[in-house]
């Protein structure tokens, strides 16, 4: 049973994860504004996988895939890494980074929806209310004369596909009793999902490879080392220390930091749509992720 509280080092890691994931969005925007999306993701994912494998082997962890788990591993990698990475890259290129972060972190809402079908989970009334709030939040951000779907329909669709894919991958991953370490699971998913992106980038974007600015280079290095490699390891440590309901509170803070870091670093405007959508989506995440407040009970909660 996990402890109810974090150790001092755990609190430090939790703060580091929130800051890393929350502030990553404007830096993703900077890198993707100069580096083609397939190339960008094709560089980051396999590189992160190789680093994770190296650390796992250095720590003498078993990094092999158990018999019978290749199929769900590949399926999870397709949704969690391949589809998520490429569609989110396209979405970030076309949207403000803060707007992209709000849509991306509707992922837990979609995970609940697909868990109903894939894992036979019955949602509580609390979670149904959370899903409804999330949809209203998306509507506030995207619909209307000045909504981002009206102004940037393709970017909105790409980011929504990415969030839904991440939700599907989470539901798939949840239904499997993995007989491998979290480090191996992360490394294999990044490798399996990232290598096809790298190969496709070589074929379709090689003629777009041009020198890029130092800002794009350092932003990409920052994304690789901090939000992807460091935050993944830190997150696995946090999840081991506390219940899921405690660790997932941090997810609600990520899009908030995403919006405000985009404003601070890239001078992206913040209107009532961003504020309203952010409040509704964070409220939805609270209802979906946290324990029951007494609205109802689920067989699987």
Q: Could you explain how this protein is built, in words?
A:
It is a single chain. This protein is an all-alpha fold. The protein has one domain (29-63, 79-289). The protein contains 13 helices and no strands. It has helices at 8-32, 37-58, 70-94, 97-104, 107-118, 125-142, 148-151, 153-175, 182-204, 214-241, 244-247, 249-266, 272-289. Helix 5 crosses helix 6. The radius of gyration is 19 Å and the shape is globular. The two termini are 16 Å apart. 46% of the residues are buried.
What is the CA-CA span between the terminal residues? 16 Å
Largest sheet composition = none
Overall average pLDDT: 83
Q: Order of SSEs, N→C?
A: HHHHHHHHHHHHH
pLDDT < 50 stretches:
294-301
State which percent range the strand residues make up. under 5%
Classify the secondary structure makeup into a structural class: mainly alpha
Report the radius of gyration as a whole number of Å.
19 Å
């Amino acid at each position: 049973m996990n402890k109810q509280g974090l150790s001092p080092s755990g609190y430090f890691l939790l703060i580091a994860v929130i800051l890393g994931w929350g502030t990553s969005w404007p830096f993703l925007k900077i890198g993707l504004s100069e580096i083609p999306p397939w190339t960008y993701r094709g560089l980051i994912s396999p590189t992160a996988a190789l680093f994770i494998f190296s650390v796992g082997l250095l720590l003498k962890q078993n990094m092999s895939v158990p018999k019978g788990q290749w199929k769900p591993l590949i399926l999870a990698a397709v949704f969690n890494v391949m589809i998520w990475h490429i569609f989110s890259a396209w979405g970030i290129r076309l949207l403000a980074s803060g707007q992209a972060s709000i849509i991306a972190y509707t992922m837990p809402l979609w995970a609940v929806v697909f868990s109903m079908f894939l894992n036979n989970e019955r949602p509580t009334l609390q979670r149904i209310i959370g899903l409804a709030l999330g949809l209203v939040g998306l509507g506030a951000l995207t619909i209307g004369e000045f909504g981002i779907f009206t102004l940037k329909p393709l970017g909105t669709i790409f980011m929504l596909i990415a969030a839904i894919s991440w939700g599907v991958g989470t539901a798939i991953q949840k239904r499997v009793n993995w007989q491998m370490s979290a480090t191996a699971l992360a490394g294999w998913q990044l490798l399996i999902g990232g290598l096809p992106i790298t190969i496709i980038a070589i074929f379709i974007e090689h003629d777009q490879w041009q020198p890029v600015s130092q800002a794009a280079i350092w932003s990409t290095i920052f994304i690789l080392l901090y939000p992807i490699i460091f935050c993944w390891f830190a997150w696995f440590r946090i999840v081991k220390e506390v219940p899921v309901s405690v660790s997932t509170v941090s997810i609600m803070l990520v899009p908030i930091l995403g919006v405000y870091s985009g404003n601070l670093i890239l001078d992206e405007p913040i209107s009532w749509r961003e504020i309203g959508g952010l409040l509704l989506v964070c409220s939805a995440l609270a209802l979906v992720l946290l324990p029951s407040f007494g609205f109802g009970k689920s067989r699987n909660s």
